[in-house]
Amino acid sequence: MNKGSINVSVENIFPLIKKFLYSDHEIFLRELVSNATDATLKLKHLTNIGEAKVEYGDPKIEVKINKENSTLHIIDQGLGMTAEEVEKYINQVAFSGAEEFINQHKDADGIIGHFGLGFYSAFMVADKVEIITKSYKDEPAAHWTCDGSPEFTLDVADKTDRGTEIILHIAEDSKEFLDEWKIRELLSKYNKFMPVPIKFGTRKETLPLPEGAAEDAKPEEIEVDNIINNPTPAWTKTPSDLVDEDYQKFYRELYPMQFEDPLFHIHLNVDYPFNLTGILFFPKLGNNINIDKDKIQLYQNQVFVTDEVKGIVPDFLMLLRGVIDSPDIPLNVSRSYLQADGAVKKISAHITKKVADKMGALITQNREEYEQKWNDIKVVIEYGMVTEDKFFEKSDKFALYPTTNNTYYTWNELIEKIKGNQTDKNNKTVILYATDKDSQDQYIQIANEKGYEVIFLDSPIAAHLIQKLEGTKENVSFARVDADHINNLIDKDEVKISKLSDEDKEKLKTQINEGINNQSYTVQLEDLSATDAPFIITQSEFMRRMKDM
Ligand code: ADP
Ligand code: MG
């Protein structure tokens, strides 16, 4: 038997990276700005612990377009690299990373990073890349050049200020990345909340007039750095340091096109069993299920990962808005990978629990306010109850069941209230409900006059919720208030009195039935004493549910 190892040729790596490493070419900018950020934060740490004896100062990252030379520049004031470090981090990592990449390539769809290959994503848009870098250590600057072939050059450079400049010579087929609008768009998508200030161009700022200035004095205009990011977004702060307005303001930052205030927020702050921060907002939803517009955004250490969160967060949370940030969310990976990732699954379960806990806290803190908002949040809660068992289990605490007369009960309150009066001869407690106050008004009145409560369930998922509740709660059934005669809906074996003879009743029913001409409806003549109506028409629960599902 012959044994050996397959020799991976370096020549093959660059075209592979270029084609398959990331499905989205545009993320090269996120990768390079991430590296610049890392370099800056590393320096911050080293100066903090006294290992780097230099002034940390007020560093920023600059992104610059040079149209004439067709170059894009990413410049940082971070820790820089010595020539030796360039050899180590840039030249070598590619080898091991690429090996790993090729081994795993078979089953990866959409292809993924986290092999330390972020830097090489530059070659997706550039046919030549330069690094000019000066370490904080007292060593000469280095100049690395590579045209996408395995050969590189490494020289001494005359850069004197600390930090790194990456120069991308943008390839012919990627000229869009020399467009100011394009770069602005990318920076605001991926880097809007990154922790180091990012400068892109300048803007004019008008200085306020000094006090006592002449009436016709012209305010002075100055040119300032155009910083495209907010390095300290609300979710990175301590909840107790923030007031409601801060959250509203942050909501606007996230969704500039949203003019309506969110109803409330949940500030997530978890450090065990994993790190997770974030803010979730409950928008005013009503019965409107629209999950496509302003979506929840996933971040990893303030770097935007995706807003395609289906399969990552539970479906019902996709009705919410906001930000989830966790270092455990792998960056640069395809969505199917994210969905299968164990850490991501745990995060998802944990968020569900947190939302349930928060709802429980909100209703205890201010029941009245919670009731007022119920109509706008019920879709999320009911959707969660129907689709997530863990959420359903906790929902007795915070799910409300409003009556047609606007009394709001929790499940236990409701059962407590109706148990005596609405339990039938089979010992089932019957929950009467209406789905439309106008058209079912007659029936609601009849039920109310008998002393029965009627619950109002009008959300688009009410039918599913009822099914879920009937399937889980013992000795309870639901009946729509117009599904049958009230005495049949809650059958207590009472005597029914009618002034008409049985024969007359049959005749009258036949006539009315002919008039309606619809098999799914039933005519009721018995015991109408509680209403002024001469007769009522009902549609069976079964027929109606068939229609609603
Ligand atoms: P990763 O960021 O996952 O380590 P990359 O391929 O993005 O992988 O970068 C490889 C390494 O190159 C980094 O870990 C870092 O050591 C070095 N590097 C890249 N960009 C910079 C920079 N702007 N300043 C200093 N070092 C950098
Ligand atoms: Mg990187």
Blueprint of the fold:
Elements: H1 13-20, H2 27-48, E1 61-66, E2 71-76, H3 83-104, E3 126-134, E4 141-146, E5 152-157, E6 163-170, H4 180-190, E7 198-206, E8 221-227, H5 244-254, E9 264-270, E10 276-282, E11 297-300, E12 303-306, E13 321-325, H6 335-340, H7 342-365, H8 367-387, H9 389-394, E14 401-402, E15 408-409, H10 411-418, E16 429-434, H11 441-449, E17 454-456, H12 462-472, E18 476-480, H13 486-489, H14 502-516, E19 521-524, E20 536-539, H15 541-548
Parallel strand pairs: 1-7, 11-13, 16-17, 16-18
Antiparallel strand pairs: 1-2, 2-6, 3-4, 3-6, 4-5, 7-8, 9-10, 10-13, 11-12, 14-15, 19-20
Helix pairs in contact: 7-8, 8-12
Protein name: Molecular chaperone HtpG
Keywords: ATP-binding, Chaperone, Nucleotide-binding
Organism: Faecalibacter bovis
Report what the structure shows:
It comes from Faecalibacter bovis. InterPro entries: HATPase_C_sf, Heat_shock_protein_90_CS, HSP90_C, Hsp90_fam, Hsp90_N, Ribosomal_Su5_D2-typ_SF. The chain has helices at 13-20, 27-48, 83-104, 180-190, 244-254, 335-340, 342-365, 367-387, 389-394, 411-418, 441-449, 462-472, 486-489, 502-516, 541-548; strands at residues 61-66, 71-76, 126-134, 141-146, 152-157, 163-170, 198-206, 221-227, 264-270, 276-282, 297-300, 303-306, 321-325, 401-402, 408-409, 429-434, 454-456, 476-480, 521-524, 536-539. The chain has 549 residues and is of the alpha+beta class. The protein has an 8-stranded mixed beta sheet, covered by helices on one side. Strands 9-10-13-11-12 form a 5-stranded mixed beta sheet, sandwiched between helices. The longest helix is centred in the middle third of the chain and has 24 residues, at 342-365. The chain starts with 12 loop residues before the first helix and ends with a helix. 34% of the residues are buried.
